[in-house]
Fold:
Amino acid sequence: MKESASGFHLVNCPFITFMNKMHPGIVSLEEVCPGIIIQVDYSTIQNFTGEIVPGYKATKALMAKSSAEALARVQIKALSQELSLKIFDAYRPVKAVSFFQEWAKRPETNPEIRARYYPTFSRMDLFEKEFIAKQSSHSRGSAVDLTLVNLKTGKELDMGSIFDFFHETSHTDSPLITEEQRKNRTLLKTLMGGEGFRNFFQEWWHFSLRPEPFPNQSFDFDIE
Structure:
């Protein structure tokens, strides 16, 4: 991997570059979407790896500006229904994606974490089943993992599984969920789809803006 004077990391693909410096087209969701709830699990040990993920130095959520502005419009629609978006993850540094791959090669050491997040799979299965991508749209600033919160109760809507529960139950159209859970997932999908976000069918929480603002770039600067 080579680095140019501009700070881009050039890889063995003529159409993709990596940038390890904060890009002016990336913004904080808190600035664009006042009142949005930010809970970035990867900045804590409360995630499927059991570790603070490299690159997550602060509990902040960043996205490409156009993605953030689209999300702000979703938030306005959610607020009109006495709901709010809650962000689990947004921009994800490339180093974090690489860490997930390295983590998958380690032996299992925490049965409690496995039972909570991936009870029926091995770590390597998570990549083979495409629950975790080797190259992520999160690193391009276009993807977000999120849910809806009832502002009256302060509780998340029941979606049928927790964030990052790697199981068929988390498939958006899973037959293993209740009608209420299906209704809540449909509401989230409808709100997001109305502003150009496309859902990933294996994860009810994952959405990417289409078209992507930076389709041929992946960023690797830290969140701080």
Q: What stands out?
A: The radius of gyration is 17 Å. Residues 1-17 have pLDDT under 50 and may be disordered. Residues 26-210 form a domain with the Muramoyl-pentapeptide Carboxypeptidase; domain 2 fold (CATH 3.30.1380.10).
